[in-house]
Amino acid sequence: MKTIKILGSLALISISTLFSPSSHSSDVLVSADFNVGQGFNYLVNGTCFVVTPKHVMGDAKTANIMLPTRQYFTADLAHVFDVDMAVLESNIPEAQCNRNTFLQVSDLKKLLDVYQTGVLKTRLADGSVLQSKIVINTVDETEYLAIKPERADEPFKQGYSGSILFVAEQAAGVLLEVDDQGGVVYRADALTNMLDDHFGVDDKPAAATTTESPTDTTDDSAVTTNSHLTGRLAANQVKDHEVKMLENSPVEFVLKRTDGNQMRFTIQIMDRRENMLLDYDFYSSDDYNFAFTPPKSDTYIVRLLGLRSFGEFDIQMTDFAFDSELRGTGNTIEIPATITPKVAKDSIAEYRFNGEENSPIELILNKVSGQQFRYNVKIISSAGESLQDYDFYSTDNYAYAFTPPKNDTYTIRISGLRSYGTTDFRIEQWITDAELKSAQNVVVAGDIMAGKLANNAVAEYRMMMTANAPIDFKFEKNPGNMRFRLEIFDETGEKKYDGDFYTNEDYRIVFTPLSSDVHVIRLTGIRSHGTYTIKLFDYD
Questions:
Q1: I need a surface site. Which of 96, 201, 347, 369 has the fewest CB within 10 A?
Q2: 153-183 pLDDT, tens per residue?
Q3: What span, in angstroms and rounded, lies between the C-alpha atoms of 257 and 371?
Q4: Could you tell me if 464 and 495 are in contact, meaning their C-beta atoms sit under 8 angstroms apart?
Q5: Where is the composition biased (Low complexity) (predicted)?
Q6: Rg (CA), the chain
Q7: Do the beta carbons of residue 79 and residue 88 sit within 8 Å?
């Protein structure tokens, strides 16, 4: 049974792959003449092709291509299919041609038999990703899907063509056309077969293996954040590699054990002035992995220094996440929502949401398998004020609540503190102000006040009371350990009772009104979140 840690408002620290970052949406933004659309990469024999809807090209023969890093390249029209798809041959370097997992399609038919909803992911001009929830209207078992936006007030727009549709977090197809009602998606399995036929791909697993191998580098040249560094090293020998890296875009280093002597060596990362930013020691006889987050966009020195003995090294460098993915303008969520930001030490991911005053949300942080990493979650107001600040470990489950103090746009900021990995958040609406202060919240003796509450949230009930006629309040034990305050006000607003309680204990109080009028019973969350049950009786 899953254990969830419920955080109180004062608890700060609890001790205790899907797709590549670029494959979470279209890989590139394609612009030709006055048209803009989406595209994804297809690497063949060192040449980076771009696949995009044909109508995005219009009559143009050349297009501008923008990577998630906001680097620009060009591509020439190479082939047009019978369906509205085209292949462009680009000048994107092989090392920057994202090894696309889009074509690794599972049994799509079974997937579409189960799911009728999905997410359309669109690359924006700043490199970030816009996620649009969709409903699948029609399924053509061979080639097409008909979809529409989940919300009528969020229609598909020009420039969405080429966006990738994800169903159950798997690529299901590419959006071909849009109108006021919805859009048509070309299925991933049909597209895969069409591209395989065009490029002469017979052995799909072999093709996938080929496209997922970073560029091998045995000298100091052509090193990028997607390079495979191999070679020999001896004690006191230094090998420097200059690598261009992007601010807040973590780079993953995977060190594979090598046969032969047990060599000890250091990996150092320095800026241009050789200020030390990272310094880790390793043995060639073991596997290791770590991530480095560049503090700014610049050229960095990756230095290998032999410490003892001699031998071979095998280091794969890969883009773990891009800044445009982590905190782009497309990172706006609508509650309920699930987010899975990738975090590494010193990196930051940000998501924005519209919060309603006195309407608590619940954040459910699921533990993730693999190595343990530590991260911080802050909730920040539009004025930049930090309203909540907690630290977490990836190996535990957590649940806590945040109550917006006013109607505002809030930012959830996730910062990596140690190691790296992919988080798993579920954000739910715990309860709303309309429920907490409903006009229907009127009680009489014999009724039960029961509901949800969270720290800093307020619930109110109204009750007609008679002078000198005591009311018996019986608090029943509920799960969790939420602390809350109960206050009673007379018709003039003067406080007549004030007491604090915990939901994991039974209590009983008797209140005697001094006047015959409508009293307000106010419950205020002080710590954590949970449910309460209070029975009201006439006290004889």
A1: 369
A2: 888 888 899 999 888 667 889 999 888 778 9
A3: 18
A4: no
A5: 206-222
A6: 29
A7: no
Question: Cα(373)–Cα(533) distance, rounded to whole angstroms?
Answer: 38
Both tokens of 511, joined, read 């209140």
- Amino acid (1-letter code) at residue 270: M
Question: How crowded is residue 317: how many other Cβ atoms within 10 Å of its Cβ?
Answer: 25
Q: Residue 355 pLDDT > 70, yes or no? A: yes
C-alpha to C-alpha distance for 106 and 115, rounded to whole angstroms: 14
Q: What is the spatial distance between Cα 225 and Cα 212, in angstroms, rounded to a whole number?
A: 14
Helices (H), 106-243: 108-114, 188-199, 204-211
* Inter-residue contact 431 to 380 (CB < 8 Å): no
Report, in this order, helix, strand and coil percent for the chain, each rounded to 5: 10, 50, 40
H/E element holding 117?
A: strand 117-123
For β-strands 398-402 and 5-6, DSSP reports them as parallel
CATH topology classification for 224-319: Jelly Rolls (2.60.120)
Q: Which residue has the tokens 């082939």?
A: 79
231 CB neighbour count, 10 Å cutoff: 14
Rounded distance between C-alpha atoms, residue 74 and residue 380, angstroms:
40
How many beta carbons lie within 10 A of that of residue 328, not counting itself? 21
CB within 8 A of 503, min separation 6: which ones?
A: 477, 478, 479, 480, 481, 482, 483, 484, 530, 531, 532
Structure tokens that stand for 157 in this block? 């727009």
pLDDT tens figures, 296-320 = 999 999 999 999 999 999 999 998 9
> In whole angstroms, what is the distance from residue 246 CA to residue 292 CA?
11
Per the DSSP assignment, residues forming a β-bridge with 363 are: 400, 427
Same fold, 27-97 and 108-199: yes
Phi–psi pair at 275, nearest 5 degrees = -75, 130
Distances (CA, A) of 510 to 406, 483, 491: 34, 20, 19
Q: Which CATH code is given to the segment(s) 27-97?
A: 2.40.10.10
Q: Distance between alpha carbon 19 and the CA centroid of its chain, in Å?
A: 13
Cα-Cα-Cα-Cα dihedral sign, residues 145, 150, 153, 157: negative
Q: Judge contact between 216 and 316, C-beta under 8 A.
A: no
* pLDDT tens per residue across span 395-430: 999 999 999 999 999 999 999 999 999 999 999 999
Rounded to whole angstroms, the Cα distance separating 459 from 473 reads 16
Confidence at 14, pLDDT banded by 50, 70, 90: very low
What CATH number matches the domain at 433-538, 3.30.200.20, 3.30.70.120, 2.60.120.380, 3.30.450.20? 2.60.120.380
Q: Taking the domains of the chain in order of start, what are their residue ranges? A: 27-97, 108-199, 224-319, 323-429, 433-538
Pick the CATH number of 323-429 from 3.40.30.10, 3.40.50.720, 2.60.120.380, 2.40.100.10: 2.60.120.380
Question: Please, are residues 257 and 292 in contact by the beta-carbon 8 Å criterion?
Answer: no
Write down the CATH number for the domain with range 108-199.
2.40.10.10
DSSP string over 1-57: ----EEPPTT--B-------GGGGS-SEEEEETTEEEEEEEEEETTEEEEEE-HHHH
